[in-house]
Write a structure and sequence with these properties.
about 110 residues, three-stranded antiparallel beta sheet, two-stranded antiparallel sheet, 1 helix, Non-classical arabinogalactan protein 31-like
Amino acid sequence: MAPTLGRRSRSVVLGCGLAVVIPAVGCLPSGGFAMGVPRPQPNLNFTIGVEGVVWCKGCRACDASALLRCRHGRRALSVWGATNSRGYFLIQTGAQAAPFTSKDCRV
């Protein structure tokens, strides 16, 4: 009778141990990630502005024009700006410049 009691107590202890270990393993964080829903795109609503001066020693700078050209892949944007009587200009793009960064643009 003693060996049967020992077997029962071992199986009870083993059963209780498994009852604790199995839920604990289920609570561990998984290394995977959710599939199916892509991350939303960041809001890229900005404009690009350029301020500068055009001058030359032997000529007048009034009515000179400056060109801001942005290129990224197939997309391109060109914005012209005129200088004032002192040679200063300010070019600002509209909302259409959203796909470009300052690295994509040249004056």
